[in-house]
Specification:
The chain is of the alpha/beta class and 393 residues long. The protein has 16 helices and eight strands. Helix 6 runs parallel beside helix 10, helix 7 runs antiparallel to helix 8 and helix 14 crosses helix 16. It is globular. It starts with 10 loop residues before the first strand and ends with a helix. The mean pLDDT is 95. Bound molecules: fe (ii) ion.
């Protein structure tokens, strides 16, 4: 067996009603919080007022920043950090999906540096290795979607507004101290978001399983998360109020997040190529993986016959008498059928990508997402990446 390591420093509070424990938990992090959320959804649903009220119940002062955008940009983080420092906040609370949680982690990081430009720490910036930086301030995340896994990963994805890149960044300190995962907050997620975030969970689990960084620890989570998505995403899309399906998707998201985050496996070429689609088009994150996933599987299925065969089995497309090699060769088709089942089958053209974008997207993959690309079981050259994009148009 290979050697491996893991560490799960985030205290996770999982289950229906757990959000009500904020007054008990938040005082461990500080006295004055910046609460980051998206105005149009979190305010409208009443979640923002509820969380603000719960924080205040605990005697915490709250500065609300309800201006989180769907794909948070460098300028947003710089502005929010300035407000955080000016108000004398000492921790952040991210309420929402990946965008709000990532913003909370990024602001907690940049505030610890005394402010400045978050772009310096992104790939292509002046200090992407984060040499000599201070540890991020404390952060609590309350997730309202079952996708991204951001609540248990150190990663935050911030769009560089100059070159439209969407690098994932983070270090050991940019991980939330407390994560509240309350499926009751997910009952009102619209079907389109449930789809996009749910399919992202499938990719986190599947990619971490077919990564060269997979470990016996992460395999446990990846297999279970794939299975949970296959069994529950359809119900969560069609019957959003179904607490059991929402809970199972939330759990799938949490454990897939641990696999790619604290468990130290990783996403692979699918996320590497998908991020650049998102950077160019602002398409929903999960759908960018859906666009590139089948081509990636066709290119790599023979890199590890046993693992790709297992993917076909878990997705539910194994037929009796098939050898592992036949099952592995069937994994691209199994993925396509799974995407179709959840109405997530899209091409890059559907997402607004044109052929002219392929070159800059390829540049961006190698500049900003080479870490994930390097976790692929098959080495992918620049020509391979261009071809994968062309095959997915
Ligand atoms: Fe993702």
């Amino acid at each position: 067996m290979k050697n491996f390591e893991f560490s799960i420093p985030t205290a996770v509070y999982f289950g229906a009603g757990e959000v009500n424990r904020i007054p008990e938990l938040a005082p461990k992090l500080g006295k004055k919080a910046m609460l980051l959320a998206a105005k149009d959804t979190m305010r409208a649903l009443g979640f923002l007022d509820k969380v603000e009220g719960l924080l205040k119940t605990a005697g915490i002062e709250v500065l609300v920043s309800d201006d989180v955008s769907p794909n948070p940009r460098d300028k947003d983080i710089n502005r929010q950090t300035e407000a955080f420092l000016k108000a004398g906040c000492d921790f952040t609370v991210g309420l929402g999906g990946g965008s709000a949680m990532d913003s909370a982690k990024a602001v907690a990081f940049l505030a610890a540096q005394g402010g400045g430009n978050i772009r310096d720490y992104l790939a292509g910036g002046s200090n992407p290795e984060m040499a000599g930086v201070k540890d991020a301030l404390k952060c609590m995340v309350i997730t309202t979607t079952a996708g991204t896994g951001s609540e248990v990963t150190p990663w935050w994805v911030i769009t560089n507004t100059d070159d439209h890149e969407k690098p994932g960044t983070g270090n050991d300190s940019t991980i939330a101290e407390i994560a509240i995962i309350d499926p009751e907050l997910m009952l009102t997620i619209p079907a389109s978001i449930t789809k996009g975030t749910g399919i992202d969970v499938l990719f986190h689990a599947m990619e971490a399983y077919i990564a060269n960084t997979a470990t016996p620890f992460t395999d446990l989570f990846c297999r279970e998360a794939m299975k949970l998505v296959v069994e529950n995403l359809g119900t969560a899309i069609e019957d959003g109020k179904n607490l059991e399906a929402r809970s199972n998707m939330a759990w799938a998201n949490t454990i897939a997040g641990i696999a790619i985050g604290e468990g130290k496996s990783s996403t692979v070429g699918i996320h590497a190529l998908g991020h650049s689609i998102g950077g160019q088009t602002d398409a929903p994150h999960g759908m960018t993986m859906a666009a590139i996933g089948p081509a990636y599987m066709r290119k790599t299925w023979d890199a590890d016959i046993e693992r790709y065969a297992e993917v076909t089995r878990i997705l539910g497309y194994a037929e009796e008498g098939m050898s592992d090699k036949e099952l592995a060769a069937k994994s691209p088709e199994a993925l396509i059928k799974t995407l179709e089942k959840f109405d997530c089958r899209v091409s890059m053209s559907d997402l607004g990508v044109t052929e002219a974008m392929i070159e800059p997207m390829t540049d961006s993959v190698f500049k900003t997402m080479s870490g994930c690309l390097d976790c692929s079981l098959k080495v992918l050259t620049r020509d391979d990446v261009v071809q994968l994009y062309k095959d997915s148009l």
